[in-house]
Amino acid sequence: MSGFPMVTPTYDRETNHMLKLVNLTKVYRTEEVETTALNSVNIHVKDGEFVAIMGPSGCGKSSLLNIIGMLDNPSSGEYWFAGEDVAGYGERKLADIRKRNIGFIFQSFNLIDELTVFENVELALLYHDIPARERKERVKEALEKVRISHREGHLPQQLSGGQQQRVAIARAVVSRPKMLLADEPTGNLDSANGDEVMRMLTDLNGEGTTIVMVTHSMPHAQYARRIINLFDGQVVAENLRAA
Amino acid sequence: MFRNYVTVALRNLVKHRLYSAINIVGLAVGLAACILILLFVRNELTFDRHIADAERVYQVIMRAQLPGRPADTVANTQLPMGDAMKGAFPEVELRAAMVQQNMTFRTGEKLFSETVFAADPEFLQIFDLPFLEGDRPTALEDRSGIILSEEVARKYFGDEPALGRVITVDGQHDLRVSGVFKKLPPNTHLQFDVLAPIGSPAVRNLEQTRANWGAISSTTYVKLKPGVDAADFNQRFLAWSKTAFPEIRSPNGIVKLSDIFTPSIRPLLSINTDPIATSMRQGTAMTEIYTFSAVAVLVLAIASINFMNLATARATQRAREVSVRKVVGASRAQLVTQFVSESVLLTLVGLVLAVALVELVLPAYSAFLGKELSFNFLSDPGLAAILLGLTVLVGIAGGTYPAFFLSGFKPAAVLKGASSGVGGGSGRLRMTLVVVQFAISIALMVATAIVYGQFLYAQNKDLGFDKENLVVLEGFSTRAMREKARSVAELIAKDPRVAAASATAITPGTFDENNTNVRMPGRGSSELLVVRNEPVDFDFFDTMGMKLVAGRMFDRNRGTDYVTRPEWMRPGGQRPAGTPEDFQMPAAVILNETAVKRLGFASNEAALGQTYLAGAGQGASYNFTIIGVVQDFHFRSVRDPIAPAQFYVDPVQFDAVAVRVKPGDVPGALAAIDNAWKQFFPDTPAQRVFLDDRIQQLYDQERQMATMFAAFAGLAIIIACLGLFGLASFTAERRTKEIGLRKVLGASVPDIVRLLVWQFSKPVLVANLIAWPIAWYGMGHWLQGFTYRIDMNPALFLGAGVVALAIAWLTVGLHAAKVAQAKPIKALRYE
């Protein structure tokens, strides 16, 4: 893990940007077809912001989130993360930056079926050099935070969808990331559970975590301080809500 | 972290039981097969290592180039050579010669026939056999002593001490037990139970043998001084033999023995893996060791391929885990480590099962091989290390590719979708691996069929005589007994349960042979002609069921048909002064077909009535007239080419009786044989064998190897099918939706089954195309080693292909039928 430049979130000092996308483009190519998923996207997200990205299916939301989450590389443009352009970085470098700074929450929870609740959350710490005892404490703390401690020995299938998503949130935050990426986190949940998840995200944002969320749900988008509308790979509107 | 890997691995094992079972059983069977072969190979490679300074001990062997015959190497030497070497080679620290004789032992009422090895005193200095009684280094110095193995001592004296007890040998020599040695370990080429000093009064014909440079009948060992190079020694040895081996007089004039015999030494440690027919124990050739090692590797490769295939096929099921791990920060190296560890863990589980399997079959396996194989991995750190090493190796071999494959997933797509974001992985690679598996299986199947076919052919080949119901009576060990052989045969022949009986000096199936020099009248003496010397009685060919192809049989009413020896030509006689230089004994001779060709006759008929001279020993010759030609028959295994041979009636040389018993009452006939023997020799146990048993023994090892080969090839095929079954079940599962759609669109159950079966038929068909030429080439090469061999029948290759295809169909078809019958709505609701 050493040998790579350590990126501590020093932020873009002048603007306090957590991330800054400049003319970011993503083109998918197959043998015959070329699809432009993102077309010259410019987005700035400040440290501590809560941003929701909305748009119809196929507008490029997921592509955008994948690039922000460093799961994919842009075809062109700049991606400044905490003051560093990571657009051209290779997989190993990105993985290193990612694991120190970004937590993920998915629509389909993506818990590992073979692992218990506790083990699923602990997984996020296994790839950091954290001693077992501290790991245990932090997992307990995270489970506490999402109020699922009483289920720590259960397997994912034994939980309801809402409970599973809370475990997923615990997993996302247990490594104390600076930024949370949530991809339709309430998409598979009923409204009560969805609201609960949104309240938790809001709490986390209140504690200083930057959140970028993709969602189809207008009511849930309202939890964010800013909504970015994407259409056909382009940012068509940015609405700053009065906080 | 590692605990997490193990947790996930174990829970996955439990969750996907079929997949785990296929992998573990496949690996276990593969590993078990590999371990069994390993034990065999290890046993063969560690022969005689327990002997002190084993690396300095050598056996003298002799290459015999008899004119007109392929060269043959024997593990024997002339007895006089041992003494002649004395003083000639300062680099030899010790040397010992030994000869083998059958003797009758009596203590009190106990009477047994024993094979005795009479050896020079240094023998027990070269070979530090552990002694239970007596003093090893000096035990062979007492000429009236005899040394017994633990078992033989117990046989005669029970649990009482044997040292100093007396054994009467051949009814005339009282020998005192001078030592008892511990049972020889199973992995030594030394096979004897009784040792006697070579100068023992009980050893017969010692003086003649010591003077006979033409008889290759003793075994000689040397121990070189430290630092002596064997290759250098062999050069000096060869040079020495040119002058040390004498010239002998023959009907052709002077023959230089060094032109025929080439001595050399071979390391004690290589005796077992360099089989020579006349060794005390049949060894195992390196080619066999290599072959079985290769089979072990192939079986393991098939099991590893199963693992690779199923692991990559199942990749979708692990895709989410891989993606989540990546998202939370796992590096590719960490994931590779995880999956390789998982594979090693799985192999370890397989190893545990394999060890149990090996323990289970080891007794039967050892008994089948006639070896004592030990599997004490707890007390044998070397073996334990090999097992673990093997496991790690297989785990890494099988796990590396899936590890790289699985760890290569792009998490974005996987995490977005509810189920698989990944296709079935590299389906083409999987099919390639299936092709490899089946190519190996088919090639092994063809090889097995050919090995077995050749074995059956050899065993059932017409030997040139009828081996059924043929009994050989032996044990005419003394001159007095041999003189009565004809009378014994005549007495036996009178019994109504016996069809025919004849005294003889040869019986097929043994390695003894006696060759003599021949001179054709009117031809220069430049070419040395040597034929096998086979003294037989009048009824021999009838008794054996051998066919005459020209001329006539011997006739006891013609005085010129048999050899009449003057008194001095009988055993023990002395050539009187004034005997003519070219003393000749006229007699009739029958040749085999090979001899007719060797002696240069245009045809069997052309040979009839012709005369030639053949060496008769003591400077005399037979003056033979050819009266008949007998069809070629095999003296030994059909592996060996047939030697030219001459048959003539010379009663002083008979030392066995061949008896053809009638099939009706075989036990009665055997009793009659034993009775006849007892009437002549009440103090000596009869030694009789069924000739077909003895001939069978010649093929024992070939049968063993063929059976073992078949068994391991069978295992390989089973493991390959196991993998195919797993792959088919996976594919059927993955294609559930497609199958559902096809059914909705009107496909029938047979349509679907055909679809799936065809998918798995293609790799098997392609595998045939790869396996056939390889098997054709390899087995063709193997068959070249046989003088008489089967043809490679294309039907065999086709057959192996059909069998493989049938097995594949059976494996896949059941699965396909089950999936095809499922209701389509179920399949479509799935995703």
From TrEMBL, chain B:
Location in the cell: Cell membrane
UniProt topology in membrane: Multi-pass membrane protein
Domain ABC3 transporter permease C-terminal: 294-408, 711-822
MF (Gene Ontology): transmembrane transporter activity
Keyword presence, Transcription regulation: no
InterPro entries in the record: ABC3_permease_C, MacB_PCD, Macrolide_Exporter_MacB
Domain MacB-like periplasmic core: 20-236, 439-671
Annotated TM spans: 21-41, 289-311, 344-365, 385-409, 429-452, 708-731, 752-775, 795-817
Gene Ontology cellular-component annotations: plasma membrane
Annotated keywords: Cell membrane, Membrane, Transmembrane, Transmembrane helix
Any single Pfam family the record assigns to this protein: MacB_PCD
Protein name: FtsX-like permease family protein
Organism of provenance: Aerophototrophica crusticola
